[in-house]
Amino acid sequence: MKPAPFDYYAPASVAETVALLQQHGNEAKLLAGGQSLVPLLNMRLARPGVVVDINRVEELNYIRADGDSLAIGAMTNQRSAEQSELVRERNPLLYAAIRLIGHPQIRNRGTIGGSIAHADPAAELPALVVVLDAEMRIAGPHGERTVAARDFFVTYLTTALAEGELLTEVRFPSLPAGAGWSIQEMTRRHGDFALAGAIATLTLSGDTISEARIALFGVGATPVRLPDAEARLAGARLEQALFAEVGRAVSTSIDEPLTDIHATAEYRRNLAGVLTERALIEAAARAA
User: Fold this and answer.
1) 34, 162, 191, 32: which is closest to 104 by C-alpha?
2) Is domain 63-173 classified as CATH 3.40.50.10780?
3) CA distances from 151 to 122, 155, 165 (A)
4) Beta bridge mates, 7
5) Which residues pair with 18 in a beta bridge?
6) Which fold has domain 7-53?
7) Where are the domains of the chain?
8) pLDDT of residue 257
9) Which of 52, 51, 60 is nearest to 14 (CA)?
10) How confident is the model at residue 185 (pLDDT cuts 50, 70, 90)?
11) Phi-psi region for residue 53, left (φ > 0), alpha (ψ -120 to 50) or beta?
12) One fold for both 7-53 and 180-287?
């Protein structure tokens, strides 16, 4: 199929983009890498009256160190981040997550900001920004604002972006010194969206866990952070039996896992626990 008719604009700046979004309101859709929007247009599941192509907005294409964080422009494509030595050195978890996104052809076009703003709950980057406590910088008709990752995702394919706003930058905090990390996912085929996934980080003080962070993806309408599991781990001795216990608790704690043609809720619930345990084991090995 081909898209329904729409008007096309290609602004060259953030200010011009905001003006177009404000002018056209809900009729406008942003086109970044197009890896999510273009299939929806072709299948006529999305029928915007206006498409605003922001590929010429060069001010949103960058990767730079900023204190203890990596600041990445929303229009930076995933392949550029994957090939960045700065990303690999400063945030190996981000590097590993990017390499799980689709295939190289997808990453050549898909953007960091586009994946996060699209907010597919089975995608890796939304869960990553939640587990890292990243910050989203947003521009709109009333100026700029910053939203914490935990407040950015509202529900399925819905974020805190208001009408006329666009995501301009994502700030990925570095992991604490010596922290171990892991990202685990289960897919039907390499490059598919995950049936379920888990991201974990562990910081150790000797043989004691001083901090734990866990987020799941593919099991709900948004990425799922697990504060109860994190609290159970913090202050505990490093033991594999503990990770198995936490994995079992995670399996029973997920409120509304998705059921679709790929997997049942029961399967996803069990898988979330298994992947959490695996992620904790690998994160602990890296930390140690």
Assistant:
1) 191
2) no
3) 18, 11, 16
4) 50
5) none
6) 3.30.43
7) 7-53, 63-173, 180-287
8) 87
9) 60
10) very high
11) beta
12) no
Chain mean pLDDT for the chain? 96
Side chain identity, residue 127: A
- 179 phi-psi bin (left φ>0, alpha ψ -120 to 50, beta other): beta
CATH number of the 180-287 domain: 3.30.390.50
Tokens linked to 193: 């969206």
Please say whether the beta carbons of 100 and 66 come within 8 A. no
Helix segments in 154-259, DSSP class H: 227-233, 240-253
Tokens standing for residue 154: 């509202």
Both tokens of 181, joined, read 């990390």
Percent of the chain with pLDDT strictly greater than 70: 100
Residue 177, pLDDT score: 85
pLDDT in tens, 196-205: 999 999 999 9
Q: In what order do the strands lie in the sheet with 196-205?
A: 180-186, 196-205, 208-217, 224-225
